[in-house]
Description:
The structure is a single chain. The protein is an alpha/beta fold and 222 residues long. The protein has helices at residues 30-40, 62-74, 90-93, 98-101, 107-115, 167-175, 190-198, and strands at 4-7, 13-17, 22-23, 50-56, 77-84, 121-123, 128-134, 148-153, 177-185, 201-207, 214-220. The protein has an 8-stranded mixed β-sheet. The chain has a 3-stranded antiparallel β-sheet with strand order 1-2-3, with no helix packed on it. Helix 1 crosses helix 2. It is globular, with a radius of gyration of 16 Å.
Amino acid sequence: xxxxxxxxxxxxxTIYVPLLDEHYHSTHGAINESxxxxxxAGLKHQKKKEINLLEIGFGTGLxxxxxxxxxxxxxxxxxxxxxxKYPLVEAEYKLLNYPEHVFPEFAGYFGLLHQLSWETEHxxxxxxxxxxxxxxxxxxxxxxxxxxxxxxxxxxxxxxxxEMWSQEILEKIAQHTNPGGVFVTYxxxxxxxxxLNSVDFQMERLPGPIGKKEILRGIxxx
Length: 222
């Protein structure tokens, strides 16, 4: 069964995956969700002027696009590493309408983020470097990239992909997160919060975006 483009409540697209019965972004508003969780609770909470960022799940490229635009506006340097096992094909990402709804002045960057080759560091702008890594998170060797200051954990839900939320994976990420590093995710499950606490993230629950009660944010301890 093919993936389907879906219009969410804020007018922006998400993608529905029939195989998993899951959407890439909230149907209550894809842009609203990403801005709330990853930009406002994540990027803007990390006060460093140069940030090594790890995204789990490049997906539609929305989080990367919003981060690039915000980095340019806020004059923050972001080194953006993203891991994706199943990249979208051109026929899918070309249909996505995000630049029509947010940061239209940076619209040209959206397609570029998808078109850039994998496994290579690309200087997209003075403020933003992108390296897309086409691999399985479960087998990835984090020693190949620097320590992280910010993690966007945006894998499909634990009920759909439980292997992505294992203690082993979260511990591996924690070991490669710098002290003071920020971890943000839409998932607010108690089991996920407890696992992150156990690997030295000091976790807190925050109000969620429209349609979601809570999200999680953690700060890596010394």
